[in-house]
Amino acid sequence: MIPDGFLEKWVAGYRNKDRHDYYYRAIRHSLEVMKVTGTRNPITFYTNARGMRTDIAEALTFQDEWFKEEFQGTRERPAEYGESKAYSVDPVASFRDFAAGWYRTMITTGAADNIYFDDTFLSSNFDHSGDQDAYRLPDGQLQPSVGLFNMRALIRRAATVQAELNRPSWNIVHMTNTHIAPVHSFARINLDWEDHSGLQPYQLRYTREYLRAVSIGRQTGNIPAALTMIDFKGDPGAVESCIRSGIGVALTHEICFGLYYSQSKAYWDIRKEMYELGYGTKKAVTRNYWEKDYPVRFTGDVSSLVIFNRKGEAIVIVCNYGRIGKVSMTAGLEKIGIGKEFQAVNLENGRPIKVRGNTVEFPLKQYDFIAIRLKNGSLQ
Q1: All residues at 6 or more sequence positions from 360 whose CB lies less than 8 Å from its CB, including other chains
Q2: pLDDT tens, 40-92?
Q3: How far is 159 from 170, CA to CA, in rounded Å?
């Protein structure tokens, strides 16, 4: 239950009165979602690992330790209600103590189950008072610290709080285009792909080398996830093409793509088919296109993913990085449990795809994808 007057009091202090209605609706919506969700699904609270309100007593007391700037504006004037800094915190020991107390409160009160950490990137800190690791180089220039071990200790501290409470940890780190193993190893989910937005195809946003080095999460054992960053108010045709480019890139790199069901039924239908085949379990084997003994070969510039079970059935997802054209897929059938006689069907529309020997041929638009089911036996 939301107490009468609680939200009104919350937003009343903000100076921008024109934003009061927006703040009120946004906060109320979040609280209503929490109330409706109840215990059915875990709730994750947003926090900023490098951000902090500056108008609260703790921030005023510890401002010289927590904030990287040498001089704080709140020394000369009172902080406004809700005033904050988004990218200034170095999560030193006193900040971690403060944050861990709130993590524990969030969880033990039943308000949240997990913590989301924004801005976990390394950041230069020129504090050379001796409290941090910055120092002067022989030529007199200042070598800043970057807060690596402070950030590591913060993410680890949250996981420790959950372990002490005997709660499972599904904390999320927003990587901000980094994958820092000493830091992110203490989370469970990575969130990437924020630095590009609009309607540009995803094949042009991130190289395959970047995806494998940063996004896929295997260096830390985390589940990889990604933001959409699509201009959904743009031309409908361009939006649909952009969505499909993102689906292809995400699926062939096993990245959870942040689409709502209403934004793309196709994405969720394909994932459902993958799970029904046994994806993510011992019932199926998943192979990635960068493996040396990958069982499938293609003409054209594509990325792909193969999932197969032991019952003569496989799903192949192909994402085009090149131009419009016809793609040929030659499968090492014996390596994916498919016999000499098999059928190929488009998973999205159920239409058969041409098979010639052990080769499957299909057209594929530029930056588009296709999901194909291979199954032993001929089409009836």
Answers
A1: 328, 329, 331, 344, 353, 354, 372, 374
A2: 688 899 999 999 999 999 998 998 889 887 777 777 788 888 889 989 999 99
A3: 9
CA dihedral 34, 37, 39, 43 (to 10 degrees): -50
Let me know if 154 is exposed, middle or buried by CB neighbors in 10 A (0-12, 13-18, 19+): buried
Q: How far is 291 from 161, CA to CA, in rounded Å?
A: 38
Q: What is the mean pLDDT of residues 351-380?
A: 90
- Nearest CA to 346 among 380, 375, 370, 363? 370
Residues 6+ apart with CB under 8 A from 274: 307, 315
Side-chain half-sphere exposure of 252, counting CA atoms within 13 A: 28
